[in-house]
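haha ok so turns out i had the wrong file open the whole time. this is the CORRECT one, sorry everyone. sequence first:
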Amino acid sequence: MQTKTIIRIIFIAILLIAITCGGIYAFFKLKTNETLYHTDLFSLVPTDSEILMYIKNPEELPADFSDDLFPEQSCLEISRSLCKIYDNDINISGNNELILSFQGDEGIVFYRMPGDQVKKWEKHHLQTTQFLFAPQKKTYKNIPISIYLTSNDRFFCFAHHQGAFIGSYSIHLLYKALDMYDARENLRDNPSFVASLKTSGMNAQVSCFFKNKEWSSFDMLSDDGILWISGCLLPEYTSPELYHILNMPYGKEPLDPENIPATASAVVYLNADTCDFYNQSQFPLLLQDSIVSENAYGDVTVVYFSEQDSVCHHYKVTSVSIKDENLMLPSSTHLSKYQENDHIQKDSVEVYTIYNQNILVGDSKKALHAYVQALKSEDTFLKSHLYQLYNKHKNEDAILSILLDGATAFSDNRLCNEIIPDYFIRKSEKSNKYQLFLQFNREEGLVYYMGTVREITN
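then structure:
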């Protein structure tokens, strides 16, 4: 009986000591005007943002993670500088997470840190002349804003409010983020964003969220100069047409490099074991023809390429594998049959020919002529570094493969605009440095995709 009483006394004493220590800590925090908040950074992101980069542990982000992969490259530089200043022994609510939000080429940084650490970071940038002169001060909705001229002749503005650092080179974006403190709705109220957030990996170095009609996401992992990406398409937020295509039985035919020119800058390869996709609007009208449907293997390759030693004009040719090279198409087809020495009046009309057990459909006579001549001269995709990327990392069960070479523009992104962000494929200085390979396969009713991004070194 006496032993139990002693244990109770010890337990109560420990509890009182803990409460006393907590009170002393809170007292000193109040004395130093340091208020702690648990700010949900996602709630501060403007709802019309197009791309989000979520970094759960920014201090663990590899040094070789390229800032070229971000629409606004300076955001990652700012983020790294914040993490260097941050003292890990500071006790703030929540974890040391970071969010980068982008609209077009403008970005904004969200980071949770105490006010004294923000002052330390600000002082460091002044001492190293990354910030020039004293800041211009503004107030927006009673929130102080500091605006600095930077060493690269730009103006960087930031605010620190309720434990969150919010900074951008765009004062317009900063205002929109500060408006979110009083907004009735935020990203947490968007069902597709919430669903995408659940599919993102907790151990990913960076999770990318992007919005077309709905939000999607994929995770990124940098390893020895190669960026690996993986994601999942959710049926309730993906167009029925695309989800139908990606849920068809896959075929058994790998991509044939000898049927693609070496100058291909983009290849979309659909390896299906059925012809149901011929009714999809993404493909030429020829593919809706019943004779083609009855004689096709099922795989379709859409190729964007240029003539040899030329990047000024890009052609498009669609290839459909068939069982019979002697297949005769009906005369009522909307296409013109191509022959090397024929006289098609308008170069802009689509033309077709049958070559190596494939129906080739070109967006013009010049396109089909250049395509066929490249194949005849054996100047094929087999020699391409983009094909080597595919061959090294391909998944035999993939229903769809997409290869993009940053050396030239991918001018028609209709087959990709629900799958990857536009900034990955639009013509820009940053995309010119990379090759991208994505492949899609199914598992338990869901469509997963994995990919590789590699910097072009030659």
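The mean pLDDT is 79.
again sry for the mixup
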